[in-house]
Amino acid sequence: MRNWRKWAAGALALACCLSTASIPAFAEEEETAAEETAAAGDSTEAAAEEESSRTEAQEEIEITAEQVTAYMQKKNSCDGITFYYRPEDYEDTISDEDVVDLLDDIELAGIDDATGQVVCTLEEEDDTSDFVIFLSPEGRWLVYMDPEYQKVTMVRQIVSTLDSEFLFLSMDHKTLELYNKDFDEVERSYTTDGKAADGKVTYTNEDGWSVALADTYDALISSARFVTENDKLALYVDDDNAVIGLYDKEKQNMWWSTPENVGHDKRATNTIVKDLSSSLKMVYGEPASRNTTTMRSSGDGKAKVSEISGGVKITYTFKKAGITIPVTYKLEDDYLEARVETADIEEQDTSQETGKLTTSISIMSNFGAASSEDEGYFVIPDGSGALIQFNNGKTTAKSYTGYVYGSDLTAVALKEPAVTEQVYLPMYGIVNGDNAMMVVCTEGDSNAKLTASVSGQSNSSYNVCGFDFTIRDSDSYYMSGDNSTALTVFEDGPIKTDTIALRYYPLDTADTPDYTDVAAAYRNYLTEECGVESTVDSADPALSLDLYGGVEKEKSVLGIPVNLKTSLTSYDQAQEILKDLNANGVSDISVQYHNWTNAGITGKVDVKAKGARCLGGNGDWNDLQSYAASNGITIYPTVDNRTFVSGSGYYTFTDTTVRISGSYARIYDYDLAYGTQSQTQDPLSLLSPAAFRDVYSDLVKNYGKKDLHAVSLGSMMSSLYGDYGKKAISRDSAQTILEESYQSLRDASISLMADTANAYALPYVDEITDVPLQSSGFDVFDEDIPFYQLVMHGVKPYAAVAVNSAATPDEVLLMSVATGSNLHYAMIGEETSILKDTRLDGLFYASADAWKDSAAQGYAFAKDVLAGLGDQTITGYEQDGDVITTTYENGTVVETDLAKKIVRVDGTQYALSDYTEEGSWDET
C-alpha cells in the first residue's frame, strides 16, 4: 500500500482513540435525567439484550421446497441454485390460503441443487433496461433476471449485513463486489485465488485495493485505514469503530470525529458512553404508541466502513428499528464533507399502524469535542452570536439547543413562548488553543438543530457541539376537554429532505485563531460557494427608516363599531419626514414603508401594489417616489405576506398552512398578563408555502406595472415553515420555493430588503435591517459577539434594531457604531396616541416629531465615526468591559466606550454629546 508509514501512523493514532461518539447536547434536563436513570438501571440482561441486537440479519425461510416446486414456476439453475418464480395468477389458482399468504411476500425462491433446501426468497427491487433486480427481505441475496423474467442471470450473496448491505459475493466466492445504493451497478469489484491464510481470504483489484474476508466468507476483517490525502489534509478511518480522523498538515493537528479515550470518562454513565462511542445517533418514532426511541451506532447498531472515491462510506444498521443509514465522508481541497442521501435510508415499516419512522439523525455531532483540559470555546450563531467557553462550570444550566432558521411556526404554542433570537446561519465554530474549525451545514439546513454542552453537563467530561437533523417532524395536540395530556403525532409519508451535508473546514491562520477568523472563513464560503455578492455601493453609513402607513382601528359609525383604515403616516407626511431628515444632513436613507396598501393595512395578502386611499392619492404617492429618487433615497414598499386574512384571492379555508396534527396554523397575539392566547384579537392565518409562487409572481407583474424597483419582504426572508396537509410541503421544499421566488424578483430588477435574513436569502438580498445586537442570552453562554455583523460587513449593508425602540437608545446607537451597523429608526407621522387598541400599539415610541432631530444627530455622529468603512470587512473585534475595539480591513481601529459614550477612531475622539442638543436625547 502506498504511504505505508502514514497508514501506520494513522492506525496508531486511531488505536489510541478507544471509541468514538456523537453525544447530544440535551435540550432539557428532564431528558438527561431520563437517560441517566436508564443507564443507572442497566442490568446484565439489558446489556445482553443490547449485545444480541448486534447480530447478523438472517433470512427467515418459511416456505418449504415442496411448496416451492408445487406452486411456483421453475426457471433455471444459476450458480448451483435452481430458481422458481411466482405465477402472476397465484391468488386465483392456489387454493391453499397458507401458501397464498406466503407467496404474497415471495416473488422468487431459490433451492440449493446440492441439498434440495430453500436457501433464499426474494422480491423485486427495481429494474433496468438490461435486467430486473431482486433482493431478499434481509438483503442477503441479490439476483438479476432478464427483462422478460425468464432466466436468472446472476446470483450474489451478501458477505455480512453487519459490514455492508452493498458488499456481495459470487456463489463460487471468487468475486467480491460492492454495489451502489440501487443495486444496479458494481462500484468496485475484487477477485481472489481462493487461498486462505491465517483464517483470511484476501481480495484485490487493479486499483490496488485490498480487502480481507474471513475464510468462512461471512465477515469483513480489514481494509486500509489511510484513505486519501491532498496538499492540505489527510483522511483516516477506523473501520471497526467508524472513527474519522482529519489531519491538518499545516497545523500538524488531528481532528477526531468523536472524543479520544472516551471509555475512561469517569463522569459518563453507560448510556452516555454509548452516546460518546457513536458516530451516528438516530431517533425513531412509533405512531401507534406516540413514543420515540433513541438508537446509537455503538450498542444499538452496526457501523460498516467502505471506501469510496475520495473518502469512505459508513453504513449504520439499526436492526431493532429496521432502519439503515449510510453516510459518506469525503475529502475535498480544504474540507471534509459528511453526506447522507435520504433516499438511501431504508425503513422496513413506515405505516402509521405498526411502523417505526426515522424522526432525526445526528452525524458526527461532537466532531472536535474538547476535553476537560482544553482551553477554547464554541462559536454559536444564535442571534448576533455567542461564545460558550470550554469547561465554564455551568453544569446546572441547560445545554444549548437552537433551531436553524427558527422553529417551525406551524406548531403554535398555547402559551406565549420565551422571547429568543434564532439561528440565522447554519454553521458553528470551534476554537481550541492554536487550532480552529468551521463547520457548515450546506444541505438539509432547513431541518437542522444546533446543540452544545460543556463539561459536566449530561454526565460527560467533554465539551461538544454539533447538528441534529429533523427527518420527520412531530406536533402535539390536546383532545377536547383535556388540556393536561398532549398527544404526539408524527409527520406522515416518505422523508422529504433530499440530502444532509456538513463541511468541516480546519482554519489556516498565521496567529492564534479567534472567532473573527471563523467569521472570515464563513464570509469566504458565502461569497465563493453560495453566490453572495457585495451590494455595498457606498463606503459611508446610511440611515435605515421604518415608516408605517396605516392601521385598522375600531371607530363608531352611527353607534356601530366598525374597523376603519386609519392613516399613521400619509404619503405627504412620509415626504415631509424625509425632507426634514435631508435638511438636517441625512443624505443616504433606506426606507421600509409598511402598510402602504389597503391589503397591507387590513392584513390580506398584499400583491397589487395599489396604494391605500387613506394615505393619499396616486399623485401623492408619485410625488413621494419622485422626491426619493431625486435625493438618493431608496423606498422599499413592504409586503410581508406571512400571515393573512381572507381576501385578495386568498382564503383562510384553502390557503392556510396545515399543522402536522391536521389543524390550521393560526398565529395568535398573547395576553400580556397571563401569556395565554388573546381572546380579544382574532388570530391570523399562516399563509401556505404552496401559495408563495403565485404571490411573488403576481408581485413581480404588478410591481412592473407600477414601475417599482424595490421591495421589502419583511419577515419572509427570515421565516421558514412547511405545510403538512395534503399539499405536503416540507421546510426543505418551502426553502426552495422561497429561493425561486427571490430569484424571480431579482430577475425583474427588483431590489430586496430583508427584516433580518436567513443564510439562504443572502444571495438575493440587497439590504438587511433589524440585525440583532445580542444573542438569546442562555445561561450556558459566556459572551455575546456580533458574529452576524462580522460576516456581513463589507458584503451587505445592514442596520441593527431600531434605536428608538430600545429602553436605552444611546446604548443601541453606540453598539450599532461598534458593530459597523447603520442606524435604524421607526416612525409614524401622526401622534402615537392613535395607536391605542390597534395591532400596532407596540409602536408607542415611534413619533416622528419626537425622533427626527435625534435621528439626524445620531446619523451625523455615525457618519463621522464610520466614514469610509462601509465597504471594509471587520478583521478584529474585542470587548473589555465597556470598551469595544473594532478593527477594519484597511487598518482603521474604532474604539467605542459605552460608559463614557465616546468613540475614538485612530486616535481621533468623537463624543456623542457633541452631536446632540443638551438634554434632547434624554428627553426623547
Gyration radius over CA: 32 Å
Helix share bin:
10-25%
DSSP strand content:
25-35%
Major sheet summary line: 11 strands, antiparallel
Number of DSSP E strands: 55
Q: If helices are DSSP runs of H or I spanning 4 or more residues, what is the number of helices? A: 18
Our measurement of the CA-to-CA distance between the termini, rounded to an integer number of angstroms, reads 76 Å
Q: What class would the helix/strand composition place it in?
A: alpha+beta
Keywords for this entry:
alpha+beta, 55 strands
Describe the structure.
With about 900 residues, the chain is α+β, with helices and mostly antiparallel strands. About 20% of the residues lie in helices and about 30% in strands. The protein has 18 helices and 55 strands. Strands 21, 22, 23, 24, 25, 27, 28, 30, 31, 36 and 48 form an eleven-stranded antiparallel β-sheet that branches. A ten-stranded antiparallel β-sheet has the order 1-2-3-4-5-6-7-8-9-10, covered by helices on one side. A six-stranded antiparallel β-sheet has the order 20-19-26-33-32-29, with no helix packed on it. β54 (about 900-905) and β55 form a beta hairpin. The protein starts with a helix and ends with a helix. Residues about 1-55 and about 920-924 have low confidence and may be disordered.
